Amino acid sequence: MENIKREGKLTIIGAGLAGCEAAWHAANHGIKVTLCEMKPQKYTPAHRSGNFAELICSNSLKAERIESAGGLLKAEMKILGSICVDAAYECRVPAGGALAVDRYSFSKTITDKIKAHTNITVQTGEITEIPDGICIIASGPLTSEKLSESIAKLTKADYLNFYDAAAPIVTFDSIDMNKAFFGSRYDRGGDDDYINCPMDKEQYEAFYNELINAERAKLHDVDQVYEGCMPVEIMAKRGADTLRFGPLKPVGLKDPNTGHRPWAVVQLRRENSTGSMYNIVGFQTNLKFGEQKRVFSMIPALKDAEFVRYGVMHRNTFLDSPRLLNKDLSLKNDDRIYFAGQITGVEGYMESAACGIIAGINAVRRINGKPAIKLPETTMIGSLLKYITDESVTDFQPMGANFGIMPQLTERIKDKKQRYGKLADKALKAYENINLD
Q1: Distances from the Cα of 352 to the Cα of 8, 189, 261, angstroms
Q2: What is the rounded distance in angstroms from the CA atom of residue 96 to the CA atom of residue 267?
Q3: How far apart are CA 180 and CA 182, in angstroms?
Q4: Spatial CA neighbour of 53 closest among 102, 9, 95, 97
Q5: In CATH terms, are 2-161+317-430 and 169-311 the same topology?
Q6: What is the CA radius of gyration of the chain?
Q7: For 169-311, which CATH class?
Q8: What are the mean pLDDT values of the chain's consecutive 10-residue runs (437 residues total)?
């Protein structure tokens, strides 16, 4: 332990959200950090930008209100000094009650801050072997093949896998606003946060029929599709009304052209701060590009839509964390190595980032000869980390922040908002007694 403390160095593999959070915390606590990132020398199939903390799927970081799981998670991360939460508020775009960002500005803001820090050295190029010394592996769900092989040898265990999907993005100028209207459900948020593309019963049924029969791109070695990022064409096959009770639900909306609630509504959310691009909410897909253009153009307002990015689907890789990781996110058979982010089995942008903060905190404490920190289960982050390291979990699946994994209140409160508010208050109060230094 004395040798570790004397060196005061940390290697982090991966400059995604988790890696950047870990590097930021460590550097701010006087640790010399080498942050390894294979971009721009090498890209995964899903990445496009050379910047750090690139957002692949949605540009939404979920709800802001404290009574929501996503809102509480971000509030806890703020307490822990999150670089991602600060950047999100600097780069936000209107999205009703959600915190959505201009993805380019968000990534660039984080990249600039990381590169400007005097305690962080960025090393570009692919890492294929696990380095010596204290190390955090935050290589993400699209870990390169060679590094994956090294991790497999290290863990002496097989990975678990699932497929993740991203939604298409269209230009604002190509949307037919004569057949669409601005507005949020139940008038929550600003009047122009979302563009709503209504369909009547006949239009929806024609669209639905083509969607479930459209040609999909081939996938190899599929283990499972994650429920939280279900391709829209797979979801549709569960029944004709599944989409109408899911991403295309018309409740809380009234079409100003008819004065009535539509049969189904496709919502578009701002993709950037200028409002020049919008993503199709809930339309993660694995349809072939030509099929996406053909089928999604059947939505009346998108008849002549210009697609600047088609939906893609890619393999995500994660560890069997309950069997492999300690509570502090270090590896059971080599505790100098920590894992962080989606590779641990947390699901979601902010969940991955939060995991990076904790890995960074514990790596720094190990370097300084201090015991690992353990957040109480009454916090959202603490309960999430407990879940992914709980050996009693037999069929381990990716998990995002939710109130169901937190210890419930002893008092019975029927109103969900009040109940979640109480849980949130309890979680935030717990941080008053936690020493993070």
Answers
A1: 25, 27, 38
A2: 12
A3: 7
A4: 102
A5: no
A6: 22
A7: mainly beta
A8: 51 97 97 95 76 89 93 98 98 91 96 98 95 95 88 82 81 95 76 87 97 84 61 94 94 92 95 85 93 98 92 83 96 96 93 98 96 94 94 83 88 87 96 83
CATH no. for 2-161+317-430: 3.50.50.60
Closest among 161, 188, 104 to 320, alpha carbons compared = 161
Instruction: Give residue limits of the domains in the chain.
Output: 2-161+317-430, 169-311
| Residue 254 identity | K
H runs (alpha helix) in 267-390 = 289-296, 321-324, 349-367, 380-388
Token digits of residue 377: 């289960």
SS3 141: coil
Helices and strands, number each (H, E), in the chain? 13, 17
Q: Could you say which DSSP state residue 217 is in?
A: P
Q: Cβ distance 401 to 67 under 8 Å? A: no
Beta strand 32-37 with 120-124 is parallel
Q: How is residue 321 written in tokens?
A: 């964390």
Residues with Cβ within 8 Å of residue 137, at least 6 apart in sequence: 13, 14, 130, 151, 337, 338, 339, 340, 343
Phi, then psi, of 327 in degrees rounded to 5: -65, -25
Six-digit token string for 265 = 């509504």
Q: What are the tokens at 242?
A: 């599944």
